[in-house]
Structure formats: C-alpha cells, structure tokens
Design brief:
Elements: H1 2-23, E1 28-37, E2 43-46, E3 56-66, H2 91-128, H3 137-168
Antiparallel strand pairs: 1-2, 1-3
Helix pairs in contact: 2-3
C-alpha cells in the first residue's frame, strides 16, 4: 500500500513538473505518459519514449496540449480611476455622520444598561428561590445558569459599546 501511495505522489509530482515545463512552450505538443514496471516489480513513470524500452509499460495519459504565451505587460488594461464627478465627503458631512453614530451608540448603551439591570434583578430573584425538586445544589446551579449567562451577555455588550464610543472620537 505504501509503495502505491509513493508511486502516486511521484506520478503527481511528475505531472506537475511536466505541466510547468509545458507552460513555457509555445506550440501544440502531444504528451504521452507511461507507467512502466521493471523486472524487479518497481514502478517507474516517464514521458520519455526511450525510458520505456525493455520494460512492461502502459500508457497512463495521452493528450494534445496547446500552450498560449502569456500576454505582455503592455496588453494589460490600466487601473480604473474614479470619475471626476465622484462624490466626496466634506468635513461637515463627516462630523454629522459621527454625531449620528454617537447618538445611536448612546441609545444602545442605555438600552443595554436597562436590560442588564433587569437581568441582574431576575438572577437575584431566582437565587432567593429554591424549589422542592432541587435537593441537589447542582440542579440549582443548572437552573440559574441561563440567568447568569444573560447577565454576562449584557455586560459584554456594554463593554463593547463603551469601547466603540471611545474609539469613535480618537
């Protein structure tokens, strides 16, 4: 099995090097690849006819390949430049956009702080209650986990919004 895998990679490597060599050619060529087995049972892959003499060879691939030369640098189109009528942002429009962005962030921050307060209140209420089927403290912790997760999400959102507000006016 290892021998077959090794020969497969040799074949793939050979085909890649052959393709690279063909990329530099500028004519139509017929390519034939043989897989040969010598008298000791070793497999050899080649594209040279003279390497096949005296060996048990089979054609693996035979095809015509036409290689077209690469286009010259002068044939490439120039990079596009924006038209002169392209809209530009002035400092007043930029300041207005930042102001709107700050208002939105502050509204979101206020909302998240309110939601955090409510989540903490719900967590405190649930911590003070213990149901009869919760004789094991692990069950209590399992029930409280979703409330703790909600508090954590709102705290992270607040941190992110504060960081964004700070970065807005740097």
């Amino acid at each position: 099995m290892l021998l077959i895998v090794r020969h497969f990679f040799v074949l793939v490597g050979f085909m890649l090097s052959l393709a690279t060599a063909l990329a530099h050619a500028q004519a139509t060529q017929e390519i034939t690849i043989w897989s040969c087995r010598d008298k000791d049972g070793r497999t050899h892959v080649t594209n040279l006819k003279e390497d096949t003499s005296g060996k048990n060879c089979k054609i693996v691939q035979q095809s015509r390949v036409q290689v077209v030369p690469a286009a010259s640098q002068s044939a490439r189109p120039a990079a596009k430049t924006p038209p002169t009528s392209f809209p530009k942002e002035d400092s007043q429009a930029r300041a207005s956009a930042k102001s709107r962005q700050r208002e939105i962030l502050e509204r979101e921050l206020t909302r998240e702080e309110t939601l955090l307060g409510e989540a903490r209140k719900e967590l405190a209420e649930q911590e003070s209650v213990r149901y009869g089927d919760e004789r094991n403290y692990a069950k209590v912790l399992e029930r409280l986990q979703k409330y703790k997760d909600a508090v954590e999400v709102h705290e992270k959102n607040i941190e992110s919004l504060k960081r964004e507000l700070t970065n807005l006016f740097r």
